[in-house]
Each structure stands twice: as C-alpha cells, then as structure tokens.
User: Fold these one by one.
Assistant:
Number 1:
Amino acid sequence: MKKWFIFLLVPFLSGCSLRTLNPISETGADQAFLINLSFGLMMFVVAVVCVLFILFTVKYRETEKNKTDIPKHEEGNRTLEIIWTTLPILLLIGLAIPTIIYTFQVSNTDASSEEALHVNVVGEQWRWTFQYENGKETHDKLVLPVDQEVVFHLNSTDVIHSFWVPRLVGKRDAIPGKENKLKVTPNEVGTYQGKCAEYCGILHADMRFVMEVVPEKEFEEWLAKEQ
Amino acid sequence: MEFTFNGNLIIIPTDVIAGWLSALIGLPIVLYWITKKHYWSTIWDYATSTNHRKVGTLYILFSVLFFFRAGVDALLMRTQLITPENQFWVFQGEKYNELFTTHGTMMIFFVATPILIGLMNVAVPLQIGANDLAFPYLNLVGFYLFLTGGTIFFLAFFFNAAPNMGWTAYAPLSTDSFTVGPNNNFYIFGLQVSGLGTIFAAINMMTTIIRLRAPGLKLTRMPLFPWATLVTSFLILIAFPVLAIALLLLQFDRLYGATFFLGELGHPVYWQHLFWIFGHPEVYIIALPAFGIFSDIISNFSRKNVFGYTAMVASIALIGLLGLMVWAHHMFTVGLGPFSDTFFAVASMLIAVPTGIKVFNWLFTMRRGVISMKAPMLFALGFIPTFVMGGVTGVMLSSAAADMQFHDSYFVVAHFHYVIVGSTILASFAGIYYWYPIMIGKKLDDKLGKWHFWLFLIGFHMTFFLQHLAGLNGMPRRVYDYTYEDGIWTYNFISSIGAYLMGFSMLIFLWNVFKTHRNHKQAENDPWDGRTLEWSIPSPPPEHPFEKMPIINKRDMFWWSKINHEPIPTTENHRASPISKPTVQPMFLSAGLFILSFGFIYGWVWMQLLGGVMALSTFIIRAFYDERKSAYEKEEMENE
C-alpha cells in the first residue's frame, strides 16, 4: 500500500531530504550553512562529553574491590578549568561571527533593484492572501518567477501568523499593526509547501499554502491572466 | 452529547463526560479508602501543619498528581499524532489546542516549579542546620496558593472551558477579540494565584538561607543545592512580578475592554516582551535547583567532594545573571531588527560557557571516585548526556538567522523537552528517591527505581530525539494534523510509542510508592552514607532537629566527622527558631481567593465581593490572632 510505503521510506531518506537543509535560495542556504556549522561544532562538544562520561562511569564504578575505598579529596584543577572555560568561548566565537553576518544580511530587506517583485502577504484566520503589484490576488497559492528577487510585505488582519516555506527560507511573523519584510530569490522551479508557523487558533494546522516557482515567462502569463 | 436546557442548546463533548464520570466514580472510592484506613487525622495534620517537611511533602504530592494530569494530556496528543490525517476521539482543532495549552501550562507552573520548591522545603533547612524555614506560616500560605491556582486551572476542563491559547498566551489571540468565553480567564487566575505563592516561597528561602545557617556554615561552605536555591529565589523575585503585571494587563484587556495588546495604542509585541522577561528566567528557575540537586547527588554517590566548588557557585550565579538578559531570543522572527537579534544571540550563546563548566565539573567529580549506581545516581547519570544534548541544540537555536528555520517548529519542541525533562524532571525523580527517607522515613525500592529510570529514559529519547528531524523537515509545533506528503510519519509514530513507554514507567513509579508504603520497614538513619547535614539526623527528622546547633568548620562536615570518627561539635544554647503550630487560616484565605477567582472568570460580581471579603478578612483575623501565641507565652513564663 502506498501509504505504508511512505512510512518505511522516510528513515532511509532522512538526513539527505530534510526540507530546511535543502533550500532553494541563497538566503535559505546561508541558514542551512549556519545550522550545519553549529551542528558540527556542537557535535564536537557532545563527543567530548560522551567520551569522558563513558570513561569515568565505566572506570570508576563501584565494584567488590573498591567498595570500601575512600577516594582522595580533590579541590579542583586550575589548568583543566581554564581549558574548559576558554575552549567553549573559542567555539562560540566561531559560531557568533557568521551568525552576526547572516543575521544582518537577512534583515536587510530593501529591494536591491527596481525589478524586484513585491508581494503583499496577508495572514488571516485561517488563510493566506497574496496580493501582486498589478492588483492580482490569490488565496493559499503563491506563484513566483524563478531567479528573480522578491520582497514579501507581511501583514495580518487579526492575530499573529508566521509565514514559512521551509525549503525557501526561514520564517517571519505576520503581526497586526506592524509590517515585516522578507527578501529572497528562489532559484529552483518546483512546487513547495508553505505553512503558518505561529499558533493562531482552531485551524492553525490547516493554514497551509502552496508555493509554485515557475519560469519567468510562465509567470508573466499567469500574472496577466484574469482572476 | 447535546441536549436542550431552558430553551438553550447545550453541547457537552464526550471527553468532558468521561472526565466527570471518572471523577464521580473515583472520588467516592478514594474517600472510602481514606475513611477505612483511618487516614483523616494524618491528612488534617499535614493540611494544617506549618512544618517545612510536611509542607514540602504536600508540594511534591500535588505536583506529582498534576504531573499525571498533564502527562495524560501528552499521551492524548501523541495518540492524535500517531498517524497522518488521524481522527482520534475529539482531539482535533479546538480540543487539541486545549490539550497542548493545559499540558504546557501545568507542566511549567504546577509541576516543575512547585516540585522543586517542595524539594527545597524538605532539604534546604536541614542542609544548612536550620530547624525550620524563617516564615513557616507564610510557607503554608504559599503552598495553599499553589494548590488553589493549580485547582482553578485543573477544573477548567470539567466545565468544558480549558484554556486554548497556548501556554505562552500570545496576544492578540489571547484577548477577548479572538478567544471568547471563560476559557482563558482560567489561565490568568490560575497563574496569578499560584504565582503569588511562588513569590512567597522565594522570600522565605532567601531569608532562611541568609539568616538561619548553623554557626560556622559560611556561604562558602554551603552545599550546592542551597546555593542554587538562593540564586533561584532572586530570579523568582525578579521574574514572577513581571508575570503578575502581564497577567493583570491581559485581565484588563479581556474583562474590561482595555487595549494594552491590541488596537491603536497597544501592541501585541508588548505581551511577548513581558511574557519572556518572565519566561526566560523561569527556565533557569526550574533548571538551577536541578543543577544543585545533581551536584549533591553526584558528589554523594561518588563518595567525593564536588570538583571545582568555587567555579560551580560562580557559574550558578552567572547563569542566573545572564538568564535575565536573553529573553528576546524567543522573538527572533518578530522582526526586532538585526542589532537586537545579534545582541540577544550572542548573550544566549554566552550561557553555554558557565553551563559547560558545570558539566565538566560534574564529570570530574566522578573521576577517581567510587560511583555507586543507586536509583538517585542513575537519574543523575542519565541527566548528563540528556541535558548536554538539549544544551547544544540550545546553542544552535541561539544563532539568530538559523533560528528563523528552527523557530516554532518541532525542533524547538524537542529542544525544550530535552532541557526541561533532562534537568528538572530527572532531578525531581532523583531528589524524590534521594530524600524520600527524609520526607516519609522510608526508602523507595531501588530495583523498581532502576526499572523506572531505564524505561523513562529510553521512552524519553524515543519520544523526543526524532522530533528534531521532524522539525527540520518542516513540522510546525501546535498542529493536530499532518499529511502523508510531509514525510514525518515515522518520526511521529516512534515518538508516540516512546511517549507510551514513559507513561508506563510512571506506573512503575506509582507501584514503587505504593509498595514502599505497604511495607512497614523504616529507613535506617543516613541511608546513603551522606555528606551533608540532613543525614546527620534521624529519618524522618523530628521537628526542630537542630536544637543544639552543629558548629561547622568545613564543607561536607558530616562526612569528615564520620571519616575522622569525631562527632560534630554543637553549641551549648539553642537558637530561637520559628515553631510549627497547626493553623487553618491559609485554608480560609485560599478558599476566599478561589471564590474570588471564579467570580472574575465568569464575571459574577456578587462572587467577587464574597471572595474579596473572605480573602481580606484573613488579614484582619491574622492581625488579632496568632496560633503561636500560647506557645510563646508558655516559653516566656518558663524563662522568668
């Protein structure tokens, strides 16, 4: 049965097919890089702790032989303590620098050219509305041209929603009374899942949309078509 | 179920009916059992006593009861999520939202916080050689406020009005424009009442630790659990009033049409700031005491002193301080601007440094020790790798740009369960197994304890490990449904099985408690070959165990007195200490607040007045009547 097939397939595909780690934009790739970088640095920490943990618990566990031993008093060890204070600081600097760079980059949402496409994204309980510059309006379906910069203007008419296409780029909140912007350039044609990530009431789980990235020409035709 | 009453159509969902039925069947059975076993006098003794050990035991008892309630919520959620497009019972949409709201709120406010306060109550005074807490009456008041707040919140479900806005209560969803009905008023008043109790507990702990230590027990000689308690109390004193203010503003928005979080002048982001200025320190409020418990237990069961004591104390203080200034890392997707985002990102990363110091110090405490694998130590050992995994995902989350992908996904769900269950819940179990002889005078079965530990730990990792991947694959949190195409079925399926395993392990814990109490064997004194003062007295400790105060001249004094075969010297005189006299006033006060809260929740003014008068009159009664008066008069007569 097809459904069970999906169930069995997933563990083999995971790791290479996780949506957020397979982004279709530069910005998304930067974020995936940060995820991978922090994961690598942190796995080093986990490995060190686990090795010491296993070593000590195996070596020093109570046995018949040492049952009555009284371990020697030990205040501490300055050298060791300096090592495990400075080493994490160095690791964190390695993570902090790219974090700062990419955070500033992703926050720069001014269109870099006149040609950028502007889309108003309006969240409301429980559907998304996408308004294009020529007045075209769609619900729960976002169509974008490939390789063209797009600036989303996020807004909400009721509660807070969060605009998230996992394969495109990380999320931004759509907050009533505050316009948030998100700039991104999709570079791969295809159909992608979009979701609301901020809990927004009864049908939050169903507040999904579809994002289609199509070739430029196809997009122009679609945009010109009557609604 | 639907029926017409008085011309109104009334709809009662089947889960509420099931709740009422089990309550109506269960309650008489419990009452009958108590009567048959003649437990009423014991219950009354505990309910009115201001003795720190009894109040602490009550805190722990009710926290564990609430833990089961919130745990059942979790199991129901996991059952709904076990397959894609599942339709389990009534738990879709509204009902599912109520489940995760009550699960989160109860676990944080009515399980994690009070269970640690309970353990502090039991252990801290004895660890510092005090006879009782500085304000025993206030202590009982604090407990009753917690119980009342918890009960108000608990009852919401029975009126088919469980809160449904998430435990973070983000505005404007939490305002009356979007969530009508009494549901979320239960959240406001449940938290407001119990939060006040938590503040009282913090004041009590601070005063006790600063004023009532045994002679010679300088702060630099204090065990680490009292140290963690001291820092935690300061955090509570800073954080909880902010929550109280936020709740009050929300109450005005909901009940009286104010617009703090909505409209022209208000703004929804204000709520997020207020909530997280409270909410982030809260994370450390429930983590730091856990660190203290583990420090004591690891040192005890390795038969070694704590490695790097000074660094341990300094890092507790540093974590507490940094914990106060990282709240906006919960708000990286709000769009606060890159300067704010990077500041809070770097500040959050910094917390990893003192936390890392603590982890390595725990490991090196075990090095060259003799590690005895008893149940409390197993929980401490399970804590180290589990918590480190939660800690490193925390560092990953602090990277602001990457957090745009993590935020509000199952990755975050996995992260905070790793840190909270890994530290607080494992520490609570460890503490319960460790201090049970002090609480009750009996020792829990070690073999069952080990079963409990292994099943709980395996179930825990099964439940939460794969949620990291589900989150990275695009599963948002707080959804009751997903599709086959999402590719997260396997993760969720295994996760649900793990949750059932955790639930099963809790039944073993229950069985352990039941078995221990049926057995009349008393625990011997000093059952773990302890190091700190609480083991130098009989278990369970009598009231005022340190009438002649011990004179302390080094850390782990009790251990050294055993090694060197010389008893701890004591003072000639005893110190005037607070005494425990039974009192019903706190019960009366909390009854007043209970009525007051329901008056506000349903908007009945007569009930507000009644409850208000009852609560205020407690102050007047208290001003003219002190239950300790007769005892003090007797003492004065004797002295003359």
Number 2:
Amino acid sequence: MKIHIHSAASLLSWTLLMFGVIHERADASPSPNDAVLQKAAQQPDSTQVHEETTPSRTSDVPQGSTPEDTDNTWVNRLLAAPEYAWTGLTYPLKKFAIAYEQHDLMNRALDLFLNDERTGGVYPRFAIGGTLSSGIGLTAFDNNLFRSGKEARASYLLATRENQVGELFYRDPSLFGSQWTLQTSGFWLNFDEGHFFPGGGRSREEDQTNFALTQLAWDVTLGRRLIGDLSAAITGRLLIADAQPSDRLPTTPTFVTGNNSSMTALAIEPSIRYDSRDNPFRPTTGWFVEGAFTYTDQVDRDEFRYLGYRVEAQRYIPVFRGDRVLLFRAYLAKQDGVGGGSIPFYELNLLDLNNGLRGFDRGRWQDEGALLFNVEWRFPVWQDVEGSIFLDEGQVFNDYQDIGLKRFRYSAGGGLRFVSNRKFGFRIQVAASEDGVLTLIRGNLEFTRQRAATLGF
Amino acid sequence: MRTHTIAIHILWSALLLSIFSGCYSQPAPTRPTVWHADDRRPILEPQEETEGQWALWDGTDKMIFYRVGQFLNVGRSFRAIGTWVGLTDPLEAQNINAFDEVPDSTWFTNRHHVNRLSQDTLARGATKEQGAPDMTGPWEAISGKESLGSTPGFVIRDRKNDLYLLKFDPPLHPEMTTASEVISSRFLHAAGYNVPEHYLVEVDPSRITIGEKATFRGRYHVPRPLTQDDIRAILERVPHQPDGTLRAMASKFLPGVPKGPFLYAGQRSDDPHDRIRHENRRELRGFRVMAAFLNHTDTKAANALDMYDPQARYVTHYLIDFSSTLGADNADPQLPRFGNEYFLDFATIGRSMAGAGLYVKPWEVPLRMEFPAVGYFESDYFNPERWRPTYPNPAFLRTTLRDAYWGAKIVTSFTDQDIDTIVHTGGFTDPRAEQYVADVVKARRDKIGRHYFSLVNPLDHFEVKERNGTNLVLRFENLAVLRGYAPNDRPAYRYRVKRLVKFGIDSVILPQQVVHQPTLTIPHGSEVVEPAVTSDDVTLAVEIQTSYDEGKQWSPKSIVYLRCDPKAKRFQLSGLDRES
C-alpha cells in the first residue's frame, strides 16, 4: 500500500512539475491590466484603418531560424533504446533481404531446383502429418513431360529407417492422342507406427494398438470423358502388403484379421465421376460426384477376398462472388467379404484426420463401413490464403443396421489454407473432438493412398 | 522495500517522461515565422543512401519490423497511450512555421495553393521549353534491365546529350501507365513537390541505336552488354500504334549527382541541413492526402531520390516514379484492394479471420474497369481516412489531423478547370476516358475536402487590420464555404480573446462573441493594450470556432495569435494553431 502511495506521489509530483504554473486555465482571474482591456472592449469600433500587418510570404529573407525537431531529444532517444535493440536484432535479416533482392536469389534458387519453364525439377519436401507423423524428402516432377502435357512425379519421404514412404506417378491426359487418359501410380510404404483401434465404432481412445506395415500398391487407371462433365474410369491394382505387430506397445493382437501375415492381391475398380467444379485445385462452384466398386482377390492364398463400393458427393456453393464457398460433402463406403474371404484390417474403411474426420488421430475409426458428412465454410483472408471453419460427422459400422444417430462422431475446427490455381496447396488446421485437439499441417502431396476420396480437402 | 519503491519511481518517471517529453507541440508563438528554410548553403558531398532502394526489405521492414520497433519504442508507445486517453496531443510536424505552414525548402515549394498557377503552368508541370527529348536525331540506348518495376523500359541519350528513362504501357492497357505518370507528376509539381520532367513522346523504334557501352541487367541482375535483341524484346511487349510508333513517357534524368532515396523515417547523418526527422516533416506527412487523392499506392523509399548539386553543393529531395498512381499499378491495373489495405495488412487479416468471412470489405466489389486506358480507379469506395499505400509509410503513420488538413488544403486548391487541364496532359485518345479520370479525381478531391474540413476548423488566409490604434479587425476565409464543402454557406463563428501572459495566467479579455461574417472585431488595439513592462510585447490569442447548425455543434478551435511589438506599436499576425 505504501508503495502505491509513493507511486501516486511520484506521479503527482511529475505532473505538477510538467504542467506547473506555466499554463493555466483560460478562465482564471484577470490580471490588473485586464480591467483596462475589458473597458476598452466596450468602446465602439473605429472605422479608420490604421495598417495592414499580415506578414509577407514572398520575402526571400528568412524571418527566423529554420524549425528544429524538438522530438529528437536525448530523452526520446533513451526511451527508444528497445527499438534500437530490435533494429540490431533484425540487422542480419535486413542484410539477407537486400542480398536476396540484389543478387536475385529467388531465381537462382528456382533455377537450382526447377527448369527454366518451371514445369519440372527437384525440390526438397518437409512434412508434418499425413501417413507418417513427420519426415523430410525429395520430390522430382515434370508437368510437361516430352513437352506434351504428360505429368510424372517421384516422391520420397523419410522419417526413420522404419518409416518411409515413396510414390511414383505418371499421367497422360491423352493416351496416343485419343480421348483416353492413362494414370498410373505406385505407392510404397514402410512404417511401424500404424494405429489400429479394435472395436470399430465402439472403440475407445485407450484401445489404440500399434502395427507395422510394409505395402506396395500399384494402380493403373484408364479413363475417358463420356459426355459433358461425366467421365468413367477403370483401375487395376496390385497390392502387396505385410502387416506385423509393432515394436511399440501395445501391439495389435495377432488374431486381428490380416495381422502377422502377408498378402498379394489384385483388384479391379470401375468408377464413374461427375465433376462440374470450376477449378479442381481451388473450386468455388459445382459438383463432384463419384461412385466406385472394388473387387479385391488375394492371389497367393484364399484368405482375403472382398468387394467394396463407395459413393461420394461434394457440392460447392459460391457465396458473394465466389470469394466465399460453402462446401457440403457426403461419403459412404462399404466392404464385404465374398466367397468366404475376409478383409485385412489395414484395408478396412477408415475415418481419421487424413480421411475426413479431422479431430481424430490416425486410424481412429476403422470398420467395413464408413459414413461421413462434412460441411465447410471457406472465406478469403489474404491474397491466396483462405480461412476455413468446418464440422465433420461420421461413423464406421459393420452392418447397415449398426448405423445410428447416436453413433456419429463429431469434430469441428478451423484453419488456414494456402491455395493457388496451380498444383500447390498448403493448410494448417486445428480440429477438436471428443478425443482432444489435433493440429494438421500439410501440403497437397499427401502420401495417402486414395482409398477415401480426399479431393477438395 | 526501498528497492521496489525506487523501481516504481523510475517506472513512473519513464512513463511521464515518455508521455510529456517532446510531445508537446510547440505553440505557434514559439515557432519561427520563417517562410524559406535555410537549407541551400553548401555542404560536403554526402554518401549515397543504399538501403532504401531495395523494395523487398523496405516493404518487409515497414510491414513488420518497423511496426514492432515502433511498439518497442517506449516513448512513442506511451505517448500513443497518452494521446488515446486524452492526456496529450499527438506529436505534430516539426518543420512548420508559426502559421502552421511549411516553409519553402529543398523538399517542398509552396505553389498552387498559395499563389494560383496559370492553366499553362499547371499543364507544363516541371517540364521546360527545351526539355523534351530531341525528336530529330537518333536515341542511343545506354542501359536497360529485365524490368523497371514491372514497367518495360530503358534509358536513352538524345542528341542534346540529355538522358531520359523511357517507360511504356502494357499491351492490354495502352496509355494507362504513361498517362498516370504524366498526370500525377503535374499534380504533385503544382502541389509543391520536386518531381522530374515527364514528357509524352512518340517513339520510332528505328531511331533507337545501341550505345557503345550500353549495359543490360539481365538474369540475376548481372550487367552485360545491351543488344538489339534486348531492345526488341522490350518493344515487343509494348502496344504499337497504327503507324508503327510507340507511345512512351520520357522522364528526364534529374540534375546533379544521385544520392539514393530519402527514407521516410530518420534523417541523413551527413547532411547538416537535414535537421528534422523525415517522419516529422509536414510535407511528407501531408503527402499522405495527396497520395490518397492520386491513389499513389507505391510510396516506397525507392520512389524518392536525393540529388546533390555539385556546383551549389546542397541536396534536393525528389519524388519519382508515378507509375502506380490513378488506375495503374505499373504494368497492371490497380487491384481494388490496393489503396484500401496494405499488401500485408494485419488489421484487415484479423478482421477477416475474426469475421469468418461474414465481414465483407467495402472494396470487395466486382472489378469495374470502365476503360482499359484508365485501369481501376474509382471514387465510390474511396475513403480518405481509410486509404492506404501498398505498405506502411512511416511519415503517413504519423500524419495528424493538422497535417492532413494541410494536405487537404492543397488538394482542394485544384479547381475543376485545373483538374481538367492537368488530366488533359495524359493524352488519352478516348475523350470519355479523359473525362472519367477527371470526374474521379474531382470526386476524390471533394471527399477529401468534406472529410478533413469537417474535422479541423477550416479557417485560413487570416488578415488583421488595426483601426485608430483601438480596434483590431480580423478577417479570414472559411475554406469549407469557399470550396463548397460546408453544410451551409452562412456559418456562425464563436470567438473569444485571451491575453497571453508569460509565466503567469492567461486572461480572457474579450468574452465569447458570436458573429455570422468571417470578420471579427477586437476592441484591443495597440493604443489600448499596455504591456506590463515597457519592453514586453503583448500577445493576444483569438480562439475561433465554427458552427453550421446555429450553435448546436461547434468545431475545434483555430487559435490566431496577434502580437503587438511595443516599439512598432502595432499588432500583426504572429501565429496560428489548430485544434483537432
């Protein structure tokens, strides 16, 4: 208390010192001379003009000293000491920025990684999230292969010796000059931090088990436009996988179907797609609807044989000139064993942070069926940065009878998306769910097998 | 305990020091009555300033680091708080004279708003009779680079041995950039700023030759010999006229030795005339209003240039490069958001994020481009207070209402005829485009006038006359009425007169009076007022307020100081202060 009184006294003393008796209020008592002045004020005006006294602007002779900067005092310089320290801290940045511009470092760097047309090159990759929790790697790409619009990409990402993922991709938009498109991709994965939650839609967070998976999936897709925005495709797939209990505890029990075993399978997937979106990389309006059937048959044994189908619909509604977009998405997928075959657990339908239910950890919800609804509001924030707010609700199920309103799991959140009209995207999102809060940071090359359609997300 | 007490004393002291030290703007009677700054005396040749020419750093610094630094400046931050809570006034410009005006200097020359320029002079701008490039001989290209800003161009030498920077228009917007350069340079010259001579010329490509030592800054900005291919590559991107000629803007090189850009913050340490920190110069703070008027969004340091005159041996300060003014942004039309928000505008980003897209910015309207030759230039959404350059300008950040009022006085001094004359120099082939630009410029001028003349009491051009030594008559003009921005043309004026007393109590010697004419009678002539001591002068302060609604609301005060020299025995104007 005493300190406060001292402080107040100090403040008061300074205030008095600063204001002092130099300036007083205008309505203070008049001086003795003022009585004379007041009296004079009552006298009538005289009409005789004595002299005009407005100072001249045109004189070339300075009529006084040039003004000085009274702000530039030692006190102000002293009080600016933190600013000077900050300026010192930013000095290296300044030097770098100047060198960057002076020597055109951006173009030198781009020339180091990319070709002159910027259609191909090699660039380093850093990833947080996705199939691996994090990693560094390289991507080599050419978006205009043979100068004919063909695209090729090879990517590799390394987290640890046991956690690596690679991808090869090739796309010919006009196979032999025809209306057919050819797309082929190889996806290779080796990781020991897979999560599996036994119990499907009823699993709890503490039920998490860990498994290791080595997998190679090779897809070849032939597609063509049928009419307007409608197109069809057929995909053939080679799938080689080996799942083992991980060294990380608790491990996925060996009795889980497909664990502690390997599989070589072939799959075929016809699909049909309606895509009226204005821009696949930054859609603001239109529909995306896709339906697909998948038949997978193990070729080295008879253990795994299953049929799957999925339907997805996305609707983009432009609001206010398309700057703001409201997105609705519905997704249903179901698998069934056929001919006495079963489904390996790592091929079950999945809802998690990588697959539409963004508030849940990797592998959180897995079962034969998955139902998902998303609504997302996207709005401009700055330049090519969009903000988004979303609500996801979904559930996994074994049979359709299991679907229930009370079984939906919810996640909600928001984030920022860097988007461009080209093939580059970056987003950071925070999503909350009953399991907690998750942060997602990722670029557009996801290293996620497109089991669930993740376009537009 | 004692340590704590001392610490708290120190804290209070720092707080008060920061709030009060140097932040009191000098009252008019203590400011010099100077109309011409004494800054043309010979000095040693200063070093070239190299920092400001790098736009990337300048922009990053001003958008992020400078702002953080300003926040860390204890004095400035506490003063800002003091201003916000009403403890003190903002720091006013430091180079103003007793009449709240800017003395003529190497920075600025009072021109049109003080002594109206003729229509010919307005149209001529900074150009001179023999200043245009010689159109009979060859033009020797002496340098070029891949992009000048993003406007294609190169430097030539004509037969007179004069150097010019040639700038062209983008192919999709013929006339846009060159017209903006020419028009804006004339407005800024008439306002009082130093600008280069800008000429519109027709370029015959066959006249261009390559100089022996001509260089071209190509890949990675590395100089190499300039070739015909370089010239051809530049000219290929330029709209050609039917006769094969190209329209260009020729900017004559400034006289003297270039010393790099002047920064909008701080001062040159090697120029003894540079005694006012640039962010405290009225002409740079008030430039914000002029820039808003012309939509001059690119007010970075690199678009300023100091030139040293080796004969007279002093530095003159120029504004250069007006290719991002009016509807042009170099080789592109202005984006609607420029002029309304900074390139990286944390406040706008914050509002957008907090509003989750429900906040629609007023300028988020469909791009309405009436004429490709004009670009995006509008007045409907223009708000002089909200207007922003592409990135923060330190002088603009310190613009006070008094600075802005000064700028508004200049802007509103351009009549419709003046604007028509200057816009005509842009050389638009479509008269509708010319009319459109003139209309938008006029509308922006009017918005500026209405806005700032409502926030500051717009009384000006004071004259005092003394009658018989007993009565003073103070006349003035109300700029809002004179220029058509007042709600009505017969406002009421309320005034009272105080006598200022040194080291004592100011006294009211004439209580409040109300009149309806811009003429005030003060019955206190030099014969009536006696100094306390014979050698003392007497200073009266006439506080005037204006009301346009019969006294319901009164404007802030204008305070006119009248000083009676006891020897001369007459009153004369000695200063002017404006409340804001």
